[in-house]
Amino acid sequence: MKKHTLSGLLALSVLVGCSSSDEVVPDVPPSELYSEAQVALQSGNWLSAISQLEALDSRYPFGAYSDQVQLDLIYAYYKNDDLALGLATIERFTRLNPTHEKLDWVLYMRGLTHMAQDRNFMHDLFNIDRADRDPEPVKKAFADFKRLLERYPTSPYAEDAQKRMYALKNRLAEYDLATADFYLRREAWIAAINRAQELQKTYPDTEAARKSLDIQLEAYKELGLTDAIERTEKLMELNPR
């Protein structure tokens, strides 16, 4: 019974993911089409909004609504989890509008989109925390938010970007901790120590850094390195969990 339920859920997710191109958009004036797209956006009807905005973008690529259409598409793609399309639209917009007044928002949305790539449908569905999954999207999101703070420190999105960087830093630290633990379980003592120490150096103010001292201590004990064991125990006293 569970297998059938899971199959049904997966089939539904495929259908939802493929349905955005099914809607036929009537050939109406661009102003009318844009108004309809705005109504769809405001009501959260992302599929309809995307269909209408894509039609505007393809039919009137240099029209009066061109820039705003692309900005709206970036947002709609993000909300609809069309993340690859969102990133492609962000890159296109940035390339064509290097001095646009809303580039801070575009950079912010790129960070959010990269963050969303760290999600996984099955992990969300079953509330599974996988600290060992590929952190590359997280690194990209962190770089996006860092760039936003450097280029646009007074942006209205700067404060939220900074908060997200803190969460992303902890996510990256947890990944390094999971890697160090993997090495420890494989009895690769030196590799476990190196990863733990790299974590402590890169993310010193995280809970994962403190946890990595346990891994480091166990590896040193397995190697019989008395001085290193004592140094690690002192570090653990100075950094209680």
From TrEMBL:
Q: Where in the cell is it found?
A: Cell outer membrane
Its main localization is membrane
Q: Which InterPro entries match?
A: BamD, BamD-like, TPR-like_helical_dom_sf
A Pfam family matched by this chain, by name?
YfiO
**Carries keyword Signal?**
yes
Could you list this entry's UniProt keywords, alphabetically sorted: Cell outer membrane, Lipoprotein, Membrane, Palmitate, Signal
Q: Which NCBIfam families match?
A: OM_YfiO (TIGR03302)
What protein does this entry describe? Outer membrane protein assembly factor BamD
Organism of origin is Vibrio hepatarius
Q: What is the lineage of its organism?
A: Bacteria, Pseudomonadati, Pseudomonadota, Gammaproteobacteria, Vibrionales
